[in-house]
Amino acid sequence: MGLHGTWASPYSTRVKWALKLKGIPFQYIEEDLYNKSALLLRYNPMHKKIFIPVLIHGQRPVCEFMVIIEYLDEMWPQYPLLPIDPYERSVARFWVKFIEDKVGKSKILYFGIFNKSHEVQAKAMRDSLEMLSIREEHGPNKGKKFFGGDNINIADIAFGGLAHWMGVVEEVSGRKMFDAEKFPRLHAWMGNFKSLPLIAENLPDQGNLCRYLARQREKLFSSSTHK
Amino acid sequence: MGLHGTWASPYSTRVKWALKLKGIPFQYIEEDLYNKSALLLRYNPMHKKIFIPVLIHGQRPVCEFMVIIEYLDEMWPQYPLLPIDPYERSVARFWVKFIEDKVGKSKILYFGIFNKSHEVQAKAMRDSLEMLSIREEHGPNKGKKFFGGDNINIADIAFGGLAHWMGVVEEVSGRKMFDAEKFPRLHAWMGNFKSLPLIAENLPDQGNLCRYLARQREKLFSSSTHK
């Protein structure tokens, strides 16, 4: 089992967490996006687009974070990342989709907050705050540590792969979004989540991530156009 | 079982197809986006965002097209929309995600092709053609009628909810994308897909859809800003 990823990617990190939580041994291969490994190119399902992270299992690639998680959960049922009950599964999947859409379409992370356009920046800030307030309102149930209840599930993994990066984006941009007073349930959740050694040990170092994102931000600012 | 949807939505249509293929009886409730039903508002999982389509089952809402399909497949295993083999499931899910991302992020449909900006329009055209050529290259296996093999699966439903609308967008915009000579496998697929009575009978009428999208396009052109 191999996982091709990049250290600074929330998507790669989420898959690492899933593999670690399930106790599945794997070889991690750090990819350089500007000089991709022959193995990655060989297993990539398309010629025109490179997917990262990619899980290689039995010489076959599985791409896209949530697709990988579903695959892992079906192949290795230990430490289920999706609830057992079909309705509860739909709720967990809904929250993953919610987070994915916010990051993708609303560009609440890098591409929005780091954008040259003040209008785009302002919209990304508004969208981030709206997303956080919705997630706060639908936070972990009373007395529960995680969105998944007493154990981490896929909704925790998805939000964790956003919340940590959000803190770094705040530091680099100097703009506060994830305020502890405004979002007390989410901050309590964050404490519980990061207190798990498996999570903390597989989280990119905040200092390195800050330096990396600061460089990315400079690139975005110096490029003439960006989405 | 109730499905709240809008007739012109590819997402609502996909869920209708899934319910029909599985033979699950349901009540369809057409929603007016400007005057939503009390039932829809009551079952909506969030106050700030209205999801359509919504499946109401046992007085509980299930939102987001793919989440609904996964739920239906888990609750009603007849006519499986996802393959049985975990790896094949991951491949089908990957293609759904691919189509979803192209429609969402690359705006290959309305918001792109109908955009006032020539730059945005040109990008949407490029992205559409790229998407189609990738899907063509990875079309149904030789001798198979559908992406799912001999039966329709979720990858067919996802692409069908794009291809039909693409034809309408072409008609309204006067720009050809889905060319039969460039994409012979996809056109053969389209013929097979639409020849199924269950699909054809639950497809919005092309003329009505053209008129509807022409009005949407006018609205986009007359609004001062749009994404």
Overall description:
The structure is a homodimer of 227-residue chains. Chain A has 227 residues and is an alpha+beta fold. Chain A folds into two domains: 2-75, 3-Layer(aba) Sandwich (Glutaredoxin), CATH 3.40.30.10; 86-222, Glutathione S-transferase Yfyf (Class Pi), Chain A, domain 2, CATH 1.20.1050. Chain A has ten helices and four strands; from the N terminus they run E-H-E-H-E-E-H-H-H-H-H-H-H-H. The first copy, chain A, has helices at 10-22, 38-43, 65-75, 86-104, 110-113, 118-137, 154-173, 184-194, 197-200, 206-222, and strands at 2-5, 27-30, 54-57, 60-63. Chain A has a four-stranded mixed beta sheet, covered by helices on one side. In chain A, a hairpin with a 2-residue loop joins strand 3 and strand 4. In chain A, helix 1 packs parallel to helix 3, helix 4 (86-104) runs parallel beside helix 7 (154-173) and helix 7 packs across helix 10. Chain A is globular. The model of chain A has no long low-confidence stretch (mean pLDDT 89). Chains A and B meet through strand 4, helix 3, helix 4 and helix 6 of A and strand 4, helix 3, helix 4 and helix 6 of B. Chains A, B: It is found in: Cytoplasm, Cytosol. Chains A, B: Its EC number is 2.5.1.18. Chains A, B: It comes from Eucalyptus grandis (Flooded gum). Chains A, B: Keywords: Detoxification, Transferase. Chains A, B: Residues 85-221 form the GST C-terminal domain.
Overview features:
homodimer; 227 residues; alpha+beta; Glutaredoxin; Glutathione S-transferase Yfyf (Class Pi), Chain A, domain 2; 2 domains; 10 helices; 55% helix; globular; glutathione transferase activity (chains A, B); EC 2.5.1.18 (chains A, B); Glutathione-S-Trfase_C-like (chains A, B)
